[in-house]
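Cross-check.
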Amino acid sequence: MGDLLARALDGVDPDAPDAAWRIFRNLMALVPWWPLFWFTVGCVAVGALIGWWRGRFWHGVLWSLLLGPLGWIVPLALPKRPRGRAA
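Predicted model, tokenized:
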């Protein structure tokens, strides 16, 4: 925890008016953005596949984008839509 605090306060004067923004920027620099991006893309792809299989493509995309892997539950829990029209 001390190491994280030291990295967040690196080059920050606590008495400066923009100290909070500098700390925030330092913390955001520690986040692994590319792995998180690809994880999100993967979750949306799986959600789209589940939604397509259940006849609710956009439900799968939307819920997996919002909730990640937990969003896969929504299109699985909804009733399956029939593919063709009944005559």
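The chain has a mean pLDDT of 90. The chain is about 65% helix and 0% strand. Passed to J.P. for a second look.
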